[in-house]
Amino acid sequence: MGVDAIRVWQDQSIWKPGAPGYSAEAKGNIGFHQDYAYWQDASTTNTLSANIALQDTTIENGALRLFDGSHKVGLLDDADGFFDTDIDTLRDRFSRDTGIEKETVINLKAGQVSFHHSLTVHGSGPNTSADPRMVIAPAYMPDGTYYREEGQAPCPHSDFLGPDRVHGTKYDGDFFPIAFPG
């Protein structure tokens, strides 16, 4: 990230049930999206998301997929496809919008981690294995990141700044702890 200090932006866990527990309609897909499409009230796109595997992740159990280099094309229109489970249509659209045709599957062994930029187009397909796929997915921002009020709907993170937040209020304190240096 090229900064002296990093704060936790969010943390989440992702659990994809194995077959036959997944929805036949949704297939456990997480639609292709850019994280910053949801975080536009942060003053920077210089944020990273981690994908920490709690067991081996493969294409069969719905591993993370991304478009290499897509972070270089900027924020795309309609990049908020997280809940859109039609990943084939999304893949085609993002491929057209970015000019990137190659999709990379991030296979990880249990305990390994991958990182991606908030402008990286990414998603994941179905878990067709018998076992659930579980990951912890924290995200990080540079210390000094502040609330940007530009007319977009605020993301839930800004609620932790309180009802009196104004443009320039820093994301800091107990809800956004320093992660590096520790």
How is this fold's topology laid out?
Blueprint: E1 6-10, E2 13-16, E3 30-33, E4 48-53, E5 64-67, H1 87-98, E6 103-105, E7 113-117, E8 122-124, E9 133-136, E10 139-142, E11 178-180
Antiparallel strand pairs: 1-10, 1-11, 2-9, 3-8, 4-7, 4-9, 4-10, 5-6, 5-8
Plain-language structure description:
The chain is mainly beta and about 180 residues long. It has one domain (about 5-180): Jelly Rolls, CATH 2.60.120. It contains 1 helix and 11 strands, in the order βββββαββββββ. It has one helix spanning about 85-100; strands spanning about 5-10, 15, 30-35, 50-55, 65, 105, 115, 120-125, 135, 140, 180. The longest helix has 12 residues, at about 85-100. The model has no long low-confidence stretch (mean pLDDT about 90).
